[in-house]
Each structure stands twice: as structure tokens, then as C-alpha cells.
Amino acid sequence: MVGMVGRVQTCLTLKNSADVSKAWKYLLGVVLAAAVLTSGCAGAVTRPSTSGSNGPVLSASAATLNFGNVLVDSTDSLGIILTNTGNENAIIGGVLVTGSGFSASGVGANTMVPPGQTAALNVTFTPWAMGSVAGTLTIASNAESLSVKLAGSGGQLSPHSVLLNWDASTSDIVGYYVYRLLMDGTYAKINSAPAVLTEFTDTRIQNGQTYSYVVTAVDADNIESDYSEPALVTIP
Phi first, then psi: what are they for 83, rounded to 5°? Predict the structure, then answer.
């Protein structure tokens, strides 16, 4: 870690990539020591059908969606899967979301979920102020209502920044994409255009948080390499 007045720079070292036969395979390695990032979704919840064992039975893939710390006026999203494990069609009557900054999309009124099928909901959190927020996602249906707890908190930008740098790829590429891990365990691209230089600075971070980064190389056809090994950075 390299100290700097007014911010903290954390350097990420990526090993040289190895050329292989296919242009889209640019192998990148990373070396960085930091703490482990934890995810924010709890276990599944199931509600029995009111119409008996032969009716529709809806279950949700998580009992709680925890967004963790999200920058004020920024938006994070988490997904939830509804599964009909019963023997009749489940008809969703509506989706109700409570809690400041929470919203849901993907499933509307009169959505039918046949036996053995699923429906996907996308839940977003956009905090408008600092502090913790709690809410509830309620799915009403003919298989009895489901409730999923929602949690998150609004935070402010840190005065620190994270400086990532790596060795140049030896393959024929046009640049690099940098990704940061989300609470749902997926990586989101944080630079809209490929970085031409072998470095990137992330300023949208919060104090006391741990971030995981990976890098890909991209060629002129916009074909990306596999992710590099993740690098974890803890902000003081």
C-alpha cells in the first residue's frame, strides 16, 4: 500500500498474460492481500399454499436481501427468484415494497407461474440520506403471500481512493475493463470504455468497506478475456 496525503492508494499487481491460440483468451493474474468480502443474501423461505397440497406453492430464493452500504444517490440491485413447487398455476396478484429507497420490477399483477417454473424479481436500493433503512417486499398470490425482509444503509464517499495497476498484456488488445464485486456475488464493470493505460483509479468507495476487483483484457472485436484472479482491498 502506498500512502498519499488526503487519500490512500492501493496498488494491484497483475502478472503478465500468456499468449494462447484463441484471441479471446488473455490470462491475467493478480496479487494483492486484503480481507474477505462477504455477500448479503440469507437463506430461502417457503410459504405453504392455502388451497392444500395440490395447489400452487410459491417459494422465494431468499428470506432477506441485504444491500449493505450504498453511496447516497447511487443504486444497487439484487435479484430474487420465485419458484412454484406446487401442482397448479400460481397467479401473482401484486408486489408491494415498503422502505425508503427500495423498489422492485420484473413481476407484475396477474403474472402466472406454472408448476415447476420460476419468475425473477429485481430489487433496487437508492438511499437518499445516510443511515440504515429497513423495508419489506411482499408478493401477493393465490398461493399465499410471501414476505422478504429488505435492509441497507446510505453512506458517503471516502476521501481515499484505490489505485489499481497491472503489467501490460502481450496479446493484441485495445484495453482493459475493471470490475468490482456487488453484494449479490456478481461483478459489475466500473469503467464504461476500455482503459488504455495499465492503471485505473476507483474513487466511488466508502470508509470501512472491503472491495473485490478483477480485470479483463478486450480486443478490437470487443471480446473480453476471462476474469483475472480477484484482488481484495479494505478501505480504512
Answer: -125, 135
